[in-house]
Amino acid sequence: MITRFISYFSAIIVCQFVFVILLAPTWTFLVSTILFLSLLLVEIMPLTKYATFKSLFHQKQLYDPSIYLESAKRVQEALLSIDPPETERIKIVRRCVPASTLGGDFYTFVNKSMRKLDEKTKTKGIVELVDNKEDLIGVTIGDVAGHGVSSALVMALASGLLGRIGLNNRSPAVILQRANLDIQKFISHSQISHVTAFYSTINLDQMTLTFAGAGHPAAVLLRKDLTYHLLEANGIFLGMYPDEVYEEKTISLTPGDRLLLFTDGIIETSNAYNEAFGTKRLVDLAIMHSDREPDDLVEIVFEQLYKFREGEIQRDDQTLVVVDIK
Fold first, then answer.
1. d(Cα 189, Cα 108) in Å, to the nearest integer?
2. What residue spans of 127-248 are helical by DSSP H?
3. 56 touches 36 (CB < 8 A)
4. CA triple 141-142-147, angle to 5 deg
5. Among 120, 144, 167, 204, which is 20 to 30 Å from 84 by CA?
6. pLDDT digit string, tens, across residues 226-235
């Protein structure tokens, strides 16, 4: 570049000398200047194009929303790729298929040991307590209203809150109530209207399932004899009212039971005839394939959802969690 610049400058000096002899001084300056600028322009044009491209590339990085959406998607995928707890007595399989780049569905799993004081004897006038430790597993599923960046932010918040609060509390109703207070403060300043959630605590020592719901579709408990229960509990969406109270229920478990938690994107999937997939079809699939591993059941359900849509687009996130009690 420098060598060429010197060559061009030398050529200009020669031209100036010639033009001074043959032409008027004004023409000499004008022509030499035009020649210099022309040669310089030819030389730096490729560099200018490169610089312009580089500038546009950096502007794209700074202002193109797709780059940020892709980054947010990777963060969300990391949240949903957490490994569920697995012991000799329980197996959990989960899958979430967002309808767009960023989804609002989530699940959390908490493996916790909690101490409990139990009454040892019932001698009149004497109360003797014993310190017992219980191993509990918390399984939560939830759905943030809407889609996009706002939903993804609230999804991360709700998932983290329910996981953290669930780690230090045994009662699903209390966990939802405390999470509701924080979520309500946050979404009151956002475009998100509410969050649904279903929280369940599995006590493998006592073989019980305690649960509470916040406007979320009822989970299904499929028994080994192929009867089933819809786990319904009263409670409005998280984030609606700060003083909401959630109903809590407990049901017994037996080895061979299978628990299904899902979001409305599963049961509200519709086909070209505007017919919903429904809870009944999901339960029928679970009964029909009760002898299959939970991984297989999850695969079958999503295959059937795809076939049921008959080419219709997926309009909502679809999440399914299957818990086997061994």
1. 25
2. 149-167, 172-187
3. no
4. 140
5. 144
6. 999 999 999 9
Show the beta-strand stretches assigned E in the chain: 90-97, 105-121, 128-144, 195-203, 208-214, 219-222, 228-231, 248-252, 258-262, 318-325
Taking alpha carbons only, the member of 117, 116, 90, 322 closest to residue 202 is 90
Quick one: tokens of 1? 């570049």
| pTM for the predicted model, two decimal places | 0.76
Amino acid code (one letter) for 203 = N
Q: Where are the domains of the chain?
A: 2-55, 84-325
State whether CATH 3.60.40.10 applies to domain 84-325. Answer: yes
Backbone angles phi and psi of 45, in degrees to 5? -55, -45
Question: What letter represents residue 82's amino acid?
Answer: I
Q: Which residues partner with 276 through β-bridges?
A: 270
pLDDT tens column, 260-283: 999 999 999 999 999 999 999 999
Phi, psi at 127, each rounded to 5°: -120, 115
Contact 322, 282 (CB under 8 A): no
- Computed on alpha carbons and rounded to an integer, the radius of gyration of the chain in Å comes to 33
Query: Could you tell me the two tokens for 85?
Result: 């707890």
Angle at 109 between CA 107 and CA 110, to 5 degrees: 145
Q: Is 233 helix (H, G, I), strand (E, B) or coil?
A: coil
Residue showing tokens 């909401």? 244
